[in-house]
Specification:
Shape: globular
Order of helices and strands: EHHEHEHEHEHEH
Distance between the termini: 10 Å
Largest sheet: 6 strands, parallel
Strand order of the largest sheet: 3-2-1-4-5-6
Oligomer: single chain
Bound molecules: zinc ion
Structural class: alpha/beta
Strand content: 15-25%
Number of strands: 6
Radius of gyration: 15 Å
């Protein structure tokens, strides 16, 4: 059962796929995520992009990863394959790992479905064990049901990815589902 779902796609930005923090494995999830977005649009499921839009002085930049996804640069734009539809998709700019942290994502989710609020968040994007994990943590703290697309998230290594998924399932009760299965459930939740 999928109750009032919203899709959150984390950090599918040029710098993470082809730029400064490029990870080859990230390319694996582009086409599954494209299919997910198409199905979401068809079934009126909201799609939210949670994007790094760093200031050069953000802690994450100065203390950990170096310059990446700097607000206003090409590196901080969503990859062309997944360009948000400005007429219906939402973009939330974030300054650290979680798409919830001081971004306005939670009130946005609560206003969806004519004020009933989204209940289920479906997470895709990068990276399984970092930003997806921290976004899942904040979703859990706020009482959302969590679904993670097993073929819609990736990480630096297979081990990072697999351990990341295991953690999401064990700690936040996330359901780990393939994009095909998620699409099936989205279609069902629309017709019921
Ligand atoms: Zn960042």
């Amino acid at each position: 059962m999928m109750i009032r779902p919203a899709i959150i796609i984390v950090d599918m930005l040029n710098d993470f796929i082809t730029g400064k923090l490029e990870v080859k494995r990230a390319k694996n999830i582009i086409s599954p995520l494209q299919r997910l977005v198409v199905a979401a649009h068809k079934n009126e499921v909201p799609v939210i992009f949670g994007n790094d839009a760093h200031y050069p002085q953000d802690i994450e930049v100065t203390q950990k990863w170096g310059q990446h996804a700097i607000k206003g640069t090409h590196g901080a734009e969503v990859i062309p394959e997944l360009t948000p539809d400005p007429t219906r998709d939402y973009i939330v700019e974030k300054h650290t790992y979680s798409a919830f942290y001081e971004t306005g994502l939670d009130p946005l989710l609560r206003d969806l479905y004519r004020g009933e609020g989204a209940k289920t968040v479906i997470l895709g994007g990068l990276h399984t064990h970092i930003c997806v994990r921290h976004t899942a943590a904040d979703a859990f703290f706020r009482g959302y049901h969590i679904i993670v697309a097993s073929d819609g998230v990736e990480a630096f290594t297979a081990q990072n990815h697999e351990q990341g998924l295991e953690y999401l399932e064990n700690v936040y009760g996330a359901k780990i589902l393939t994009i095909n299965k998620i699409i099936e459930d989205i279609v069902k939740s629309n017709t019921s």
